[in-house]
Design brief:
Strand content: 15-25%
Number of helices: 5
Largest sheet: 3 strands, antiparallel
Number of strands: 5
Structural class: alpha+beta
Length: about 110
């Protein structure tokens, strides 16, 4: 589970689908190839009614496999918040490692 924002938790499958839709709109037939979700996985995710209505907009076509899925503004905001938090965590880890290296260098110099 990933904490997205505002008390929203996403499963790995949900996050994988949102990330794929963040990159580009997908037709139903492209889910397995571009979102790396097998049929059972994306079927499970799409049947979560509140998830689908909350983050994803659907443009239906005559052929169900041609149905287009894309993120709405809330879905985009969630992915951007997750990416921002990951970036901040990476920067904080790098700064921590740098501080540890300085501490070790200072300690070695004192020996």
């Amino acid at each position: 589970m990933y904490y997205a924002d505002n008390g929203i938790f996403l499963s790995d499958k949900q996050l994988k689908l949102l990330n794929a839709l963040y990159k580009s709109d997908l037709m139903l037939k492209e889910f397995e190839q571009k979102a790396d979700l097998i049929y059972e996985d994306w079927l499970e995710v799409l049947h979560l009614e509140d998830y689908l209505q909350r983050f994803i907009e659907v443009t239906e076509q005559n052929d169900p496999m041609q149905t287009i899925f894309h993120l709405n503004s809330e879905g985009r905001a969630i992915i951007e918040a997750i990416k921002s938090r990951r970036r901040e965590n990476l920067i904080n880890r790098l700064l921590s490692i740098f501080a540890i290296l300085i501490s070790i260098a200072t300690w070695i110099k004192q020996l």
